[in-house]
Amino acid sequence: MLGKHTRLSKILFLIIFVKVFILLVLLCLNTTDIQRRSHGHGRGRGRVVLINELLIDRREAPSLQERLKLIREEMPSFPLEELLRRPRNAKQQSCGEAPDFMNIEYHNDYWQVLHNGNTTYYLFGAYYDDREAVPKTPLVRLLTMINRYGKANELKYPLTYCQLWYKDRVDPVIVEAVDYKIVWLWGGAPRRVFPTLISCPLPKAKSKTNSNQEVPEMVSLVSDRCDRAKNLLRVVHETDEVRSTTQIAKSPPGNASEKQLPEKEKPLRFMVCLKAMDFPYTDMSWRLIEWLELVRLLGVDKVVFYDAQMHANMTRVLDDYKASSPGFVEVRPMSLGRGEPHSPRHFHHYAMDSDGFNRILNEMIPYNDCYYRNIYKYDYIGLFDIDEVIMPLGNVTNWNDLIKLAYRVPDYERDSSKCKDWVSFCFRNVYFPRYVERPKVYKQLPSYYYMLQHVERVQEHCDRYSATKCLHSTKYAIGLHNHFPLHRAETGECDAKSVPIEFAQLHHYREPDNKTRLINPIIDDNIWRFQPQLQQRVYAKYEKLGFLPTIHEVELAEEQRIHKDEQQLREAISKT
């Protein structure tokens, strides 16, 4: 009996020993695994590290000054910095108390509002104008949209006042708002608002030199001169931008520096403004790159875009240009003046597409905002879409030389021989359609060079008024429409000159509205004067942004296309 118990004890002991051994082995394996995951192979032997951190954003919150800079980018027209700088604990004014941050009537993100009787003013921007050739300056121009339209000599606006706020002053300077200029001449319609420039005349400095003229920091529009305003706009006065490296490079090597050159020998400064970029579904990034590189080759120093829900790839392109070419590309915020919500991109696109007249009226806002922000920085400003470019012809290959030539050549269909200067130089439109049914002209050139590939155009140019585009002189132009200046200084300069098509033309890469123009196209390969540089620059940008597919991706895409075509064929056969 005792022997039997002894054998059972030994068996039980053996079982317990085996279990303990297995547990120890498992524990060792688990410890080794933790060490490997914490330190990798061959590192951190003999110790276990507990991961106690997550890969999250641990940057410090921006300072107040940094936040004010970001707010300025988000809300360009609202003068928060200037408002915070105003004297504290100052004696309250009996007339024209300064607006409070919480008292502002905002509208659709970037606008502010004034109601004066049955007239509603939607205020977008304010700009200091003290140009020598412009009459009745200095003044502050307000860029607005107003719910009234009519002829200039018939339309009566209610009495309205500008409250002008200066740095380190408590009391405003109050003047009557005058000289309403509607930036639209082709009739009105109910339930629309119309782009209108309003002038706030400023008291002139006692000295004859403009350097002593004090510029107001902020302006409000009120219906009674002593009202506490519910709107407050920053007065834009930007003059100190250094010329870009692109501009400086135009000077011939070995010449004197640009500052030492006589005024007539200095290279002209060009910039381009675009309307709100409404491309939520169509990826135009590849064409945007080619267009940007072409206008840069033509001598453009800066291009300003207004974001109205662009495709993500287009945003990528512009972000890359802002990082790689500082100062060449600028993107500004934009919304519709009447109030259609800006944030939801699908609804915003629908709203712009469903009311074409409202969309066209709103286009005047980014064009004129861009123009007035840059009148002291550039000599000529053009308003374009990304399917348009002014192309010099013959031996001229840049806009600087084109303007010099434009002064000497005759005016198309008009005698301007007595003129010495012009508000704008305009160029007749000619269409370069796709002609998808026709074979490629340059079979060895990939199709993703859109403008280089599309060298077939319609035979006839448009007349001097139809779809023309211009380069506007910042000396004289006051109110700009998409196609020509509507208001100018009228202090000796002539109306816009139409440059004959022997010297330059507006390339317009789209189908004409009149389809009969598509018949019998001709070859026009003037763009190929820029082919080596343009192709090289565009390809480099495609490659950098990852737009060029690999051979495997091309083959896979071709297989998918064939499969889709076969599926559509089977479906068509089954329906017959």
How do you describe this structure in short?
By secondary structure, the chain is an alpha+beta fold.
Entry keywords:
576 residues; alpha+beta; 10-stranded mixed beta sheet; 7-stranded mixed beta sheet; 24 strands
Low-confidence stretches: 37-44, 242-257
Fraction of helical residues: 25-40%
Distance between the termini: 95 Å
Find the structural class using helix and strand composition.
alpha+beta
Gyration radius, in Å: 33 Å
Number of discrete helical segments: 12
- The general outline is globular
Major sheet details: 10 strands, mixed
Total beta strand runs: 24
Q: Whole-number average pLDDT?
A: 88
Q: Which strand-content bin applies to the residues? A: 15-25%
Account of the 3D structure:
The chain is an alpha+beta fold and 576 residues long. Helix content is 29%, strand content 22%. The chain has helices at residues 2-39, 64-74, 80-85, 245-248, 285-298, 312-324, 345-354, 356-373, 399-408, 450-453, 531-545, 551-575, and strands spanning 106-107, 111-116, 119-129, 139-146, 161-165, 173-176, 178-182, 194-201, 218-222, 233-236, 270-279, 302-310, 329-333, 380-384, 388-392, 424-427, 429-431, 456-457, 469-473, 477-480, 485-488, 497-499, 504-508, 522-523. The strands form five sheets. Strands 1, 2, 3, 4, 5, 6, 7, 8, 9 and 10 form a ten-stranded mixed β-sheet that branches. It has a seven-stranded mixed β-sheet with strand order 13-12-11-14-19-16-22, with helices on both faces. The longest helix is centred in the first third of the chain and has 38 residues, at 2-39. The radius of gyration is 33 Å and the shape is globular. Mean pLDDT is 88; it is low at 37-44 and 242-257.
